[in-house]
Design brief:
The complex is a heterodimer.
Chain A: H1 2-37, H2 43-69, H3 89-97, H4 114-126, H5 157-197, H6 204-221, E1 224-229, E2 240-243, H7 249-255, E3 261-265, H8 269-281, E4 285-287, H9 289-292, H10 295-307, E5 314-316, E6 327-328, E7 342-350, H11 365-373, E8 378-384, H12 396-411, E9 414-415, H13 429-449
Parallel strand pairs in A: 1-8, 2-5, 2-7, 3-4, 3-5, 6-9
Antiparallel strand pairs in A: 7-8
Helix pairs in contact in A: 1-6, 5-6, 5-8
Chain B: H1 5-18, E1 25-26, H2 28-32, H3 35-38, H4 43-50, E2 58-59, H5 60-68, H6 90-101, E3 108-110, H7 111-122, H8 128-142, E4 149-151, H9 152-158, H10 164-167
Helix pairs in contact in B: 7-8
Classes of the chains: A alpha/beta, B mainly alpha.
Subcellular location (chain A): Membrane
Family (chain A): Belongs to the 1-acyl-sn-glycerol-3-phosphate acyltransferase family.
Pathway (chain A): Phospholipid metabolism; Lipid metabolism
Chain lengths: ~450, ~170
């Protein structure tokens, strides 16, 4: 019976061989070569438009299904689930008391005042401004990813079939494709930067090209569809580029369009190898763990870098942590003290195609990257804002807030004063004292005005 | 306005989100994680309202039951004395607020308990003498039977004119 198996075996091997060749040729022609040359066939945009049509159809079907069964469709609320009146302490307590009038010389307290604090407290238990920035944003329509859907009961057979097809495509085709690309991209980065490192110092043209090629491949590895606006404002040498932080992928998104010097801690493992390779061909700033605590040392290294006009602009994320792309949190003032030109950049992800936010308390980095690579696509807009300089009489904190407001306005994000560090830290007592102060000021004003 | 199943799902999401250990129960620490609550002067008191005496955890039904106090009052409810008082009626809301003051649950707000609340609401912004005189005056105004404490009925009477139904209600978005 042995001779029976051989032709069949041969056939299988031949088929496998051909398909792998075809696969790699397609990869090369449609993805890697355009990445090297910096051109685009427009395939990704067509893909994006098709997906949008499918998502809208899916959402309509779900709504129809829910109506037929006379159920309430669970609508995720991106603005919070309760109606919060934006009135001040003064307004609310005034309304609470009605028109009580009396002549007192001391602060006038009323038993009813407690209702204001009580309601505010319970409101924040149900829905608060800060904590919801640290979890993924919810979508209005369904994008065929199980992770973002609560209306399972309303899915018809056709919709389930579509979803099943979606899973097959994403995990069976897109994920392997993207993994191959990612490995190629990173591998090329390591090899080419090391090679460029052997060339004489000051060789910037080739190293820029090498970086750009590898980042372009990585962008295709994530199927990232990026729209750059106002490219005339792109960061120039001798400046610092600041952007809002949503995910580690931000770096790839920005580096796809320009060359920056990265700033960060030295890591071990694969990340460390990549860091060391990158440094061979262009000046990145990597800090040892111990050096990070020394603020003067950090400031000096950054300052030296920007003073050298031949060096690329530095890329910094002043929030210090990943926020879920609905808001911008407090900017740490360190980068704004250096005294050079700041180039603000706003990055806004379109959540319909895949949620880019990295919730580091929920997912590790590998898990996160796998989720990214099995989403439909990562669609985002990048706005380069006009450069800003610190003005006379403005301190670093005010400057930082000014830049933050500009970024928030451009990206359509909420500008919050809260510190992103609150993700992990406790609220300081100073905040409570502020509330107490507001209350006593109000009481004093009431008594003196009568 | 009724609470729909969708609202309950939303509340459960929030409950799960607050339940960092995934134990199905909320502990004091979970409430303390809410940043805006930490800056509320009576934040700890409000957290305490969720826990029944002697309990150290709050399960989801209890969580919702406490929040139900804040549902807008149904103005058209016929006053039927045979039915139990709905949890979001004016009286129930008043009772909830009363218990925020009356921590030892003896049915009266003593001078000491009132001072305690004032201390929390005003902190370091006033002197101890000022606190005492504020407390004195508040008791004087409300205490009708001159027992130097405020009973629930006296509390209710002193708040006759206050629009509690509106101020102690949280409206869900549709």
């Amino acid at each position: 019976m042995a001779w029976f198996v051989f032709p069949f075996d041969n056939l299988v091997c031949m088929c496998l061989g051909i398909s792998i060749t075809v696969w790699f040729t397609l990869l090369l022609v449609f993805i890697i070569v355009p990445a090297i040359l910096g051109v685009s066939f427009g395939i990704r945009r067509l893909y994006m438009k098709t997906l949008l049509v499918i998502f809208e159809w899916a959402t309509l079907r779900m709504e129809r299904g829910a109506k037929e069964k006379n159920h309430h469709l669970y609508k995720p609320y991106s603005n919070g689930i309760i109606a919060k009146e934006p009135s001040s302490l003064e307004q609310e307590i005034h309304e609470l008391r009605g028109s009580a009038n009396s002549l007192r010389s001391e602060p006038e307290f009323e038993m009813a005042d407690i209702f204001y604090f009580c309601r505010r407290g319970v409101e924040s238990i149900v829905d608060d401004e800060v904590t919801k920035r640290f979890s993924a944003q919810e979508l209005e329509s369904w994008n065929l990813l199980t992770r973002s859907n609560y209306n399972f009961r309303h899915i018809s057979v056709r919709l389930s079939a579509l979803w099943g097809l979606g899973v097959l495509i994403r995990y069976g085709f897109l994920l392997p494709l993207r993994l191959t690309l990612a490995v190629t991209g990173v591998g090329l980065l390591l090899v080419l930067t090391t090679m460029v490192g052997f060339l004489p110092n000051g060789e910037t043209y080739l190293s820029e090209k090498v970086h750009l090629i590898c980042y372009r491949i990585c962008v295709r590895a994530l199927t990232a569809i990026i729209t750059y606006h106002n490219r005339e404002n792109k960061p120039k040498n001798g400046g610092i580029c600041v952007a809002n932080h949503t995910t580690p992928i931000d770096v790839i998104i920005l580096a796809n369009d320009g060359c920056y010097s990265m700033v960060g801690q030295v890591h071990g493992g694969l990340m460390g190898i990549i860091q060391r390779a990158m440094v061979k061909s262009s000046p990145h700033i990597w800090f040892e763990r111990s050096e990070v605590k020394d603020r003067h040392h950090v400031a000096k290294r950054l300052g030296d870098h920007v003073a050298d006009k031949t060096k690329q602009p530095i890329l910094i994320f002043p929030e210090g942590t990943c926020i879920n792309n609905t808001s911008v949190m407090m900017f740490k003032k360190g980068s704004f003290e250096i005294g050079c030109t700041v180039y603000p950049v706003a990055i806004k992800y379109d959540p319909r195609f895949g949620d880019a936010f990295w919730n580091s308390s929920k997912f590790g980095i590998v898990n996160y990257l796998l989720r990214m690579m099995s989403s439909w696509a990562i669609v985002c807009s990048v706005w380069y804002l006009p450069p800003m300089n610190r003005e006379e009489g403005e301190d670093a904190v005010q400057f930082a807030n000014r830049v933050k407001a500009a970024i928030a306005a451009q990206g359509g994000l909420v500008d919050l004063l809260w510190d992103g560090g609150l993700k992990r830290a406790k609220v300081k007592d100073a905040f409570k004292e502020e509330q107490q102060k507001l209350y006593i000021d109000f009481l004093n004003r009431r008594s003196t005005s009568l | 306005m009724k609470i729909s199943p969708a609202h309950i799902i939303r509340l459960y999401d929030r409950f799960e989100f607050l339940d960092k250990e995934g134990s199905g129960q909320l502990r004091l620490e979970d409430f303390a994680e809410v940043k805006e609550l930490a800056m509320n002067p009576i934040g700890d008191r409000i957290i305490g309202a969720f826990f029944s005496p002697g309990q150290e955890t709050v399960d989801f039904p209890s969580f919702v039951r406490i929040l139900a106090h804040f549902r807008p009052t149904d103005k058209n409810r016929a006053k039927d004395s045979t039915q139990p008082e709905p949890v979001n009626s004016r009286t129930s809301k008043l009772k909830f607020a009363f218990q925020l003051y009356d921590q030892d649950r003896d049915g009266k707000i003593s001078r000491a308990e009132l001072l305690q609340v004032l201390r929390e609401m005003l902190g370091m912004q006033v002197t101890e003498e000022q606190l005492e005189s504020i407390a004195d005056r508040a008791i004087q105004e409300a205490d009708l039977d001159r027992d130097d404490a405020i009973s629930f009925e006296e509390f209710r009477k002193s708040l006759e004119k206050v629009n509690i139904e509106h101020k102690m209600s949280i409206r869900f978005l549709r």
